[in-house]
């Protein structure tokens, strides 16, 4: 039975550079090189946190969490295939949630396959759940932030509009790849951010340009065709069938005004996962961890100390 926890409130920590000491590459099953960065020391006995981004992201969402989690446990962050410093997929079709979860296992093995807590945001929630399905043995807990157990293209703004238009978009991209690529890479990042604020997809009251602009910049570097196919694959995946079988502590963080993964999806997960805590960020958007970090970080710290038993005095 899940229980609801009230929104904690602590001052946000001073933000410094990400405290990663080492950068390397893991090799996926199909030979794709995956960028990995970790804190030191690489202690395979300690519980280590692994961070899974949303589609099109390369770490911006965890910006305010690094410094509050690093004192509690070692951390590893990685880039999906075709994202950030990772290579494009060696096999174009290998961009499903199952593939990402297999990639995460390779990343875990590269770090010594220690006991771990998997953090996931947006599509990263699906990756974290699939990773638990594939290899649950050393997973001590899951932290699922502003994401769904699956079928994400059916629920954007509460309707299946993305699922309906994706086939046409993919056909258009396949027919006019050079034109689409030129437009995609030249949209001004500031303009895209202002549109997102205007549409209510991000929170204009709490959002900061310096927090979200890196996401807009990174999105323009991601191959549009791969992005759309990855989104389609995420829309076809679901972990709904085994939510009730999860037997580790789970923290579910939802945002009240999340237009990408509406709050009712998080509430549904919280009801179905036996060992779950649930936090709803008031007035938060899909980017709640960088918009209201004081609330989200306090929940992270409380969960890690009380449910995972790391970083306790």
Give an overview in words.
With 313 residues, the protein is α/β, with parallel strands linked by helices. It has a domain of 216 residues: Rossmann fold (3-Layer(aba) Sandwich), CATH 3.40.50.1820. It is 38% helix and 15% strand. It contains eleven helices and nine strands. Strands 1-9-8-7-6-4-5-3-2 form a nine-stranded mixed sheet, with helices on both faces. Helix 6 crosses helix 7. It is globular and about 50 Å long. The two termini are 28 Å apart.
Give the helix/strand layout:
Layout: E1 3-4, E2 22-27, E3 33-38, E4 48-52, H1 66-69, E5 75-78, H2 97-110, E6 116-121, H3 123-134, E7 139-145, H4 161-175, H5 177-186, H6 189-199, H7 209-219, H8 224-236, E8 250-255, H9 263-272, E9 276-281, H10 288-291, H11 293-306
Parallel strand pairs: 1-9, 4-5, 4-6, 6-7, 7-8, 8-9
Antiparallel strand pairs: 2-3, 3-5
Helix pairs in contact: 2-3, 4-5, 4-8, 6-7
List keywords for this structure.
alpha/beta; 313 residues; single chain; nine-stranded mixed beta sheet; Rossmann fold
Quick description:
The protein has helices spanning 66-69, 97-110, 123-134, 161-175, 177-186, 189-199, 209-219, 224-236, 263-272, 288-291, 293-306; strands at 3-4, 22-27, 33-38, 48-52, 75-78, 116-121, 139-145, 250-255, 276-281. Helix 2 (97-110) crosses helix 3 (123-134) and helix 6 packs across helix 7.
